[in-house]
Amino acid sequence: MTLFHVTDRGEGKTEALVNWVKLGVSENGFPHWSRVIVTHNEHEAERLRKQYNLTKNQVWAWDYWVARGRGRGSNSHLQVAVDNVDIILQGLLHAYPVIVTATGEKYEGPTSA
After folding, report:
1. What is the pLDDT tens value at each position of the chain, 113 positions in all?
2. Phi, psi of 40 (to 5 degrees)
3. DSSP 3-state assignment of 59?
4. Is the pTM of this model over 0.85?
5. Which of 25, 22, 45 is nearest to 34 (CA)?
6. Quick one: which H or E segment has residue 44?
7. Residues 45-49: contacts with CB within 8 Å, 24+ apart?
């Protein structure tokens, strides 16, 4: 099930994802952590790693995630959070998405792994 955390900029969405990813556990297979955050670019991924003391296994840029994930099959235990999905969609669409529909539930905060 997909959960959605929608608020204005600067209201703690990314920090909530950081708290969520820290509840993950080390794993042997790709990407070597049970929960990951995918960001819109490497600059943002690196900023989160530095600011929140996270690793490259915990935070991925969108383009690296897509490139590394191809051909690896599905990992049913892996949980992925996408930060600022609107920016990723803007890059894919070459236009800012003004309306997005999806099915899921409201995100209420981090839960254990």
Report:
1. 677 777 778 777 899 999 999 999 998 878 889 999 999 999 999 999 999 999 999 999 999 888 877 556 566 678 899 998 888 999 889 998 888 888 777 777 766 55
2. -75, -20
3. strand
4. no
5. 25
6. helix 42-52
7. 48/14, 48/18, 48/83
Give pLDDT, residue 41.
Answer: 95
Residues 6 or more apart whose CB falls under 8 angstroms from that of 64 comprise 42, 45
**Radius of gyration from C-alpha coordinates of the chain:** 14
Residues 6+ away with beta carbon under 8 Å from 36: 21, 24, 57, 58, 59, 60, 65, 78, 79, 80, 81
- Are the CB atoms for 62 and 38 separated by under 8 Å? yes
Q: Which helix (H) or strand (E) holds 38?
A: strand 35-39
CA angle 104, 106, 110 (to 5 degrees): 115
Residue 34 makes CB contacts below 8 A (sequence gap 6+) with: 24, 25, 26, 27, 77, 78, 79, 113
Task: List beta partners, residue 54.
Answer: none
